[in-house]
Specification:
Chains A, B, C, D: It comes from Anaerosalibacter bizertensis. The structure is a homotetramer. With about 375 residues, chain A is of the alpha/beta class. In chain A, about 40% of the residues lie in helices and about 15% in strands.
């Protein structure tokens, strides 16, 4: 397989050190007592990124497993669940909640804007009898981040638990799980953390643990059952054999983040410069507000199609960008600037390649994306 | 972490080439069209090991995910399910079937013997109104293999589907999925395949696909929903981002098996020599029949305890063996001879270390395990 | 050790694939017949880069070993040797020739200019009784390349053999060993080839082999004796155990070059843009002619010192550039753009860091190095 | 290339950790001040193995470079040198001494026995006007170790310096450089140290340094000139760019030795058991005394040839053993049990393969090499 430069919104490039950490010799993670300490240590490092004292667990599976596990473990048949959504991922939460028997009510936001907290408050003033709410920090398909720092505390005022999909935000956008009173916050290894895909991890508040312990109906899953983990450390027992090699990689990726630069500032700076470059060139961003610093979504210029752009970028420049799917299919181009990809030099050559691509495809632009970027990044 | 020689019944040692394959640079497995071909190719290699024309899927998660996915996808509430069991893992299947609404009937075998096919036939002659049966090829905790080559065809005579946990058998014991008419056969990466833990893969018969397609009740899970994979290749779409690095490793591990020696004969030869060594030394095997060639389970000599043996082996010899759990806790010692661990020289030093350990702990033996092994292996 | 971005004129960054090639399991290179084929194949690939049909040998040692081996093997006591020099490396050749008994005559060029072929011709018209001449393709300390394409054919007109140090040129500058009638051309692994330091390789013309075979005095060295290699392939014998791991790395590095882009054009384009950026910023290049495309040497701005620049670049930007030594010590700054370092994005961030460094140290500049570079590289 | 199990007397297998250490990212070893500390630290670790306070240097080249460098740096034209020899390597020293102008006198020992110290003393009582003596600790081709612990102090009594080739001894046989008053002791990376080939390292006594400093004639080499290294640390300057990746590997290999088991005892035990197995089987060792613990040399049984044995071992067992060369060509088989290869389980399978090979080739043996080994190793 060719290995293009991955400027997609996840999986990102995985640093050589992280990949080599996965290649380390293994021990038996079920039986080696040292592994339980290692696992805990990695969880503790994740707590620093999440800014939380809540317990963090790492599950063997993709990000969506974390999301399903949260729903499966908290929701009982008949529970009223509020699905706060302004995009494809937010709306998808509804299906997961319904699988586990929830009666779901949706709060729909404008798909091109961040959730409006004022409107949400008005909604809640009318109907707030929800056990929990689901929401998405960064809507990866549209490149919109929602004000979870305001929404989660607001939900708490109405005594509503929150499950927050933060998969493409953590490691790029600010997060303060405790301060923002977030109950379950889930993330995946392959986005801003820049580890290989295969792991999901989530923080679980005391209140969320209590809900699980006091359920009436049993949790209708084993692999998605978070309650099984309650005493994993005390009992030195995992519900299944842990993905030790992937955890080696995750641990290394997390170390790179914690020991490295101010990654939130780096994402902010690069994200902003990319957006300004696009706007200055006369091209159109998809979001009207809530601009994500981890992925930029722009509307496909009318002179061409996503497929033409994508093929040209791959063949002529060996750079992979992304389109989207569902109602955004063929409408937008997405450039990921997450984790290992969120470096000025990578965006520099990506935008230079995009300049050439747009020029070849007859797209009219004011100036050059690359040069606008260079001017704006200072 | 120290890295002892892992002579446990999985995870096994992972060969350097397999670990380094996991360290290869990645592409985006959601978007890179080449990855769909790569994934398919790996599945095709697994088909050769499974000896099947059935579709094989690789899921991102531990072996138990495969087991749950099979139950979740095939079972509808109220379905009658036969749980054929003679050990901890077989019995555990009952719980999974019940989560998804099955009415489970158990056929209990002697825990120290392979399932008796004649008895099973008698049982079935009386009650055979089952949608499916669950069974375990190799009961890892007890070291007993069941005659799945006879059981599965027998079930077919009664029009009963089979879900067979072959996690610790495939790659060590003979398997003929098509010839033996097995419907869902599931395996994990970390046993005889000797890849890192984190993947499960399963073969699905045409009949099993049809059952899924003609369900009345929806499948009560997303992550465990096999039906979602129906057209993955045609649509170039996976239900979630694939664990590409783990699949790189699996592909390499499978290549090692397919291009290497006669691994089934190697497991047979080493397994047999280990058992004979134990018996000649006057020690007692746990199984009375159905001796597994991938794991040997012996009863803890009365002069000592598992904990003493285990600690001594780890501290003095840096070799990790295993005990068991549930009703076998503290009763047995298990030596894994699976995949990368199933080589004469590794068993040679393991048995030599065990000789010294038993001697130190005052266990009476006839001669030496190591020397009996050397004599028997010829 | 910290691992700064190495923008020095060698050793360069070594690509992960090359480093991992060094980590491959080894065979016995003295006894394994396959290794002789492997070594030959790597030599054949080098021939393609050298553009020669002459034999190429790889020696276990740094570049200077190749240079000494050429002198030791060709020179007999009393031989008249012409040392064509315009820099530190060219002058150093004199010492090597003298160790092996040569009577050396120097042709001195201007240290800031390429060797003037017309002047050399005038010199040779007066005195041309030389067995051989030594010269340097790229004077790494001053960043000057000499017109070896004209000099070597000119020497041949006077029947003078050439030994050409091409260590920092091959892999970046054009080379045509056969067309330019070069006798011994030597190179090292750690410059534009971007392998790890530790190997030197050289091409040897038929005439050079004949000189060695017809010597009167024995070669006064074993490790530097090229004549020992005469029948290495036929006899499947090396004078000493070969550095197999380093050769694995070299082979991979050479593959990257041969299968990659037009590397000579890439070096030309980047080298030129770096020089133009420096000139446009009002800073001074050290060379007045013969500008190297693999290393740029600029005069240290009067407002500061090399040490200040170097420390700031290392501490604030984690980028390592180089000064020089001998009469150039503290006078110049060198930026390597060789092999793996000769990519636009690396020079982009290096020049951006240099902008900030110069600004901090009070250096007056017209505009920005980085932006001039971005403008010029198009 | 196939990768057989290397049971040759060097290069040995290189441990994965050592190979991966070579794959680490590099810094510029000429310019990075930290590298000078790293190099020094590795030298200090080597001092512990050498058991010396003398300076240790690591040179970029194969073991023979160390040997030549010692001769080149210490010998002046006309010096009288005593070559103490009882084998191919000892005799070869003569040529090196002569290249650098020595008048060499040989003390010849029995090629099948260790040097007889009493005879040497008698020799020295008659003629002892030597500047230095050359000798070999372990004659790798014949598998004989010489009593350097007695010879070196004896030489000192006559005020004769010693250059000791310890390439295949250090890391396997006892060494006490200071206690035994050895002047230059040289070793290579690829024998008992089990690093990749490509480095040589040597300890240099105060007296040897003084000899170099007070030479009348200049040292007739650059690459072999040890005097250039005199102030490398103070001046932070190496005579040439160091092989940093190889040194990473060496450092890791040395760590493995220093942090591991009692490697001298391990070599003694395994070497002895191999020899006893051969003798008990009725086969003949080549040495009559001075049995090496790092390599065993046996006479080719009359029923067959080395080539037949070697081919069978390679093709049927994928194990590489060695023959020898010069006057031992086709006469002996050599089994290396050096460093990483000197483990019971590797010798177990090697001897088992040899049993099968000898049986197939019609060699008459008493019992089995493998079983004799198993009996003797206890």
């Amino acid at each position: 397989m060719k290995k293009p430069l991955l400027m997609t919104p996840g999986p990102t490039q995985v640093h050589e050190d992280v990949r080599q950490a996965m290649a380390k010799n293994i021990t038996n993670p079920d039986l080696d007592q040292d592994f339980f300490e290692y696992y805990k240590e990695t969880c503790n490092k994740l707590k620093k990124i999440f800014k939380t004292e809540n317990e963090v667990l790492i599950l063997s599976g993709e990000g969506i497993l974390g999301l399903e596990a949260a729903c499966a473990s908290l929701i009982e048949p008949g529970d009223r669940v509020l699905c706060i959504e302004n995009g494809i991922f937010g709306r998808g939460f509804k299906d997961f909640a319904e699988i586990y028997g929830a009666e779901v009510v949706c709060f729909e936001g404008d798909p091109r804007k961040a959730i409006d907290v004022k409107e949400l408050k008005e909604f809640l003033d009318k109907d707030n009898d929800f056990k929990l709410a689901t929401l998405v920090y960064c809507e990866t398909p549209s490149g919109i981040t929602n004000p979870v720092d305001e929404i989660c505390p607001l939900l708490k005022e109405y005594n509503i638990l929150s499950i927050v999909d933060s998969v493409s935000a953590i490691g790029g956008e600010p997060i303060e799980v405790d301060k923002w009173q977030m109950d379950i916050v889930l993330c995946g290894s392959q986005k801003c953390i820049s580890a290989a895909p295969g792991l999901t991890f989530l923080s679980i508040s005391e209140e969320a643990w209590n809900i699980m312990k006091n359920r009436k109906a049993p949790i209708a899953s084993f692999y998605c059952n978070l309650a099984l983990w309650e005493n994993w450390y005390e009992e030195k027992w995992f519900p299944y054999t842990q993905s030790i090699s992937d955890i080696y990689g995750l641990d290394c990726a997390v170390d790179r983040i914690l020991k490295g630069d101010n990654y939130i500032e780096r994402h902010r700076k690069n994200g902003e410069a990319v957006r300004k470059a696009i706007t200055k060139a006369g091209l159109e961003l998809y979001p009207l507000s809530g601009f994500s610093n981890t992925v930029t979504t722009m509307i496909v210029p009318e002179e061409t199609t996503f497929e033409e752009i994508n093929n040209h970028m791959l063949k002529e420049h060996n750079i992979m960008i992304a389109g989207a799917f569902d109602y955004l299919k063929d409408k937008v181009i997405r450039i990921g600037h997450m984790g290992e990809n969120c470096y000025e030099e990578k965006l520099y050559i990506t935008l230079k390649a995009l300049d050439e691509t747009f020029k070849t495809l007859g797209v009219e632009m004011k100036g050059s994306l690359q040069k606008h970027f260079v001017d704006e990044i200072d």
